[in-house]
Amino acid sequence: MSGVRVLVGTRKGAFILTSDGKREKWDVSGPHFGGWEVYHMKGSPVDPNRIYASQSSGWFGQVMQRSNDGGKTWETVGNKFLYEGTPGTHQWYDGTPHPWEFKRIWHLEPSLTNPDVVYAGAEDAALFRSDDAGDNWQELAGLRTQGSGSQWMPGAGGMGLHTIVIDPTNPQRIFVAISAAGVFRTDDGGLTWKAANRGLKSKYIPDPNAEIGYCVHRIAMHKARPNTLFMQLHWNVMRTDDAAESWTNISGNLPTDFGFPIEVHAHEPETIYVVPIKSDSEHYVDEGKLRVYRSRTGGTDWEPLTNGLPQKDCYVNILRDGMSVDSLDECGIYFGTSGGQVYMSPDSGDHWTAIVRDLPPVVSVEVQTLA
Amino acid sequence: MIRVVLPYHLRNLAKVGSEVALEVTGPVTQRSILNELEARYPVLSGTIRDHVTQKRRPLLRFFACETDHSYDDPDTPLPEAVASGAEPFFVVGAIAGG
């Protein structure tokens, strides 16, 4: 019988929520790694029982975990993330050169074809790859050392590489996104990279044609349309249909186009979801109402989804990795909040219910659809 | 034997009790203790000192014999009471974060 497993990373540990295909009754396990920040957990699409987790702490730094049994047990794997060669510098907030310093892993992206291969996005921004299930890590240094790396500058939350999207039809093509540098694409498995930000606009960048410097919050792809990407930029929701050669604005009638997550329906490549946040100064939902917005037209025309979500006195945030979908016949949508709730909709967003309400602040949500 | 007291989270990570006993050869210093600790419990590598610089992580402290040794040179011999096992070497998480 089919089922789902929801991997929830929080400020104080990880939780795993499981249900059968009806998605009505849930088992909650955790906290795993209690007291540690878990920025991200993600399972291998090839072997769903292989799950990787990023565990970190201001005191003790970065620890990496691997499970081979769907999160029942964990083993610590390699945490040696070394920048290749002499790390050099990027720009600091005041524009001065600042040495590259490893802080934490923000995002894990297992290979689509090999459960032992996994990519990790780091702060300070860099992409690492492991070919032995996380025991050892190697930087794909071309991203950072060629071209514009010395000009990258952190956003308010740090200079993290937070999004890794692998083209399902061509594993040599990978997109990454960095705050606040932008989107970069490789077509040779990570050896060389190019900035892919044409069409993005930011009021914080005086040059309207700047190649880099964009605070991209997340990008998402439907596996059937590898040349189409959707982006939640700092402000503005964007799309590309030419593999990030150019981007166009699809914010349309959103009440505010600031936000963090963006996700694509599992079966409808033109159905996308965002959660508008009031502003970059306030970081909570607008008007005290928690509303997911759905577009069934690939953007521009958006509808609020509110059934089952609080519509007064709600002031939570949803972070960039805080939303995910399952691929059951009736697509389920999931998101976690800074208030510790994990909401799910079993019907593409029409109706919502809270699976749990009182977790620590949720940092990430990933969903595995189990056969 | 050298006695090392670890903070709660590192005990859990290394799956040990409140105190670890180590056999250290040569002078007993911060570096020799941590080298032995990491060799015995590789999972602790990078959690007490940086992988590359080998410097103490900023929010950890090293105490022994009611003295803060955090700012000592890592190759300075620790007190004889630590070397003899009469007193433990403490790795302490700083109070931070509210």
Secondary-structure blueprint:
The complex is a heterodimer of chains A (371) and B (98).
Chain A: E1 3-10, E2 13-20, E3 27-32, E4 37-43, E5 51-57, E6 61-67, E7 75-77, E8 89-91, E9 97-99, E10 104-110, E11 118-123, E12 126-130, E13 138-139, H1 142-145, E14 161-166, E15 174-178, E16 182-186, E17 194-195, E18 216-221, E19 229-233, E20 237-240, E21 248-249, E22 262-264, E23 272-274, E24 292-295, E25 303-305, E26 323-325, E27 333-336, E28 342-345, E29 353-356, E30 362-370
Antiparallel strand pairs in A: 1-2, 1-30, 2-3, 4-5, 5-6, 6-7, 8-9, 10-11, 11-12, 12-13, 14-15, 15-16, 16-17, 18-19, 19-20, 20-21, 22-23, 23-24, 24-25, 26-27, 27-28, 28-29
Chain B: E1 2-5, H1 8-14, E2 19-22, H2 30-40, E3 60-64, E4 67-68, H3 80-83, E5 89-93
Parallel strand pairs in B: 1-5
Antiparallel strand pairs in B: 1-2, 3-4, 3-5
Notes on the structure:
The complex is a heterodimer of chains A (371) and B (98). With 371 residues, chain A is mainly β. Chain A is 1% helix and 39% strand. Chain A has one domain: YVTN repeat-like/Quinoprotein amine dehydrogenase (Methylamine Dehydrogenase, Chain H, 7 Propeller), CATH 2.130.10.10. Chain A has a four-stranded antiparallel β-sheet, with no helix packed on it. A four-stranded antiparallel β-sheet of chain A has the order 4-5-6-7, with no helix packed on it. In chain A, a hairpin with a 3-residue loop joins β5 (51-57) and β6 (61-67). With 98 residues, chain B is of the alpha+beta class. Chain B has a single domain (2-93), classed as Beta-grasp domain (Ubiquitin-like (UB roll)), CATH 3.10.20.30. Chain B has three helices and five strands. Chain B has helices at 8-14, 30-40, 80-83; strands at residues 2-5, 19-22, 60-64, 67-68, 89-93. Chain B has a five-stranded mixed β-sheet with strand order 2-1-5-3-4, covered by helices on one side. In chain B, a hairpin with a 2-residue loop joins β3 and β4. In chain B, 30% of the residues are buried. The chains are: A mainly beta (371), B alpha+beta (98). At the A-B interface, β6 of A face α1 of B.
